[in-house]
Amino acid sequence: MKQNKTITLTNIIILANIIMFGIQNTIQNGDLLYGLNIYFFKAELYYQLFSTMFVHGGIAHILMNMVVLYQFGNLIESAIGIPRYILLYFVGGVLTSIGSLVYMYYTGNWANLVGASGAISVLLGWFALRDKYQRQGIIIWVLLISFAPLLLGLPIAWYAHLIGFALGWIMGYVL
């Protein structure tokens, strides 16, 4: 029996991101409601730990994230199966959100974190641990997407990328 490669959990996550991007842009202050920010504490918006993985800062942001998610997500999902992939992506993504929140809290450097890149960085960390031949390239890529935008004056949550990557690496030992 031939498996349908179009309907994957990764592709469903991508569709959910696209739908959420539309929703966030039709609701007043949608990015502040669903991104991860100081309102997590001030307004008790605890769902932000999860919702931040589905909102994005613009078309270029969502396009870049979804291309990387499509490429690596489907590959990893196929390799480890849906149950382990759910743990890796969603638990890793929420843990990345918690780590980013802790960083913002203790540094006082508050921002509105949006995007799937923290959860995607979890996937990249897992992949880098598992594939020593691709490791160097993936590490360079994560460092580039984390710090090159800062040189251009673009606001980017570099710490979410690094936290996600480290968590993915650690999770790679058990998943």
3D architecture notes:
The structure is a single chain. The protein is mainly alpha-helical. Helices cover 70% and strands 0% of the residues. The protein has nine helices and no strands. The chain has helices spanning 9-24, 30-34, 39-42, 48-51, 59-80, 82-107, 117-130, 135-151, 158-171. It is globular.
- Pattern of helices and strands: HHHHHHHHH
Helix vs. strand class? mainly alpha
Annotation, overall tally of beta strands: 0
Tally of DSSP helical segments: 9
Give start-end ranges of low-pLDDT stretches: none
Mean pLDDT: 96
The largest pleated sheet is described as: none
Kindly provide the radius of gyration, computed on alpha-carbon positions and rounded to a whole number of angstroms. Answer: 16 Å
Q: Portion of residues in helices?
A: 55-70%
Distance between the termini: 27 Å
Shape: globular
Strand content: under 5%
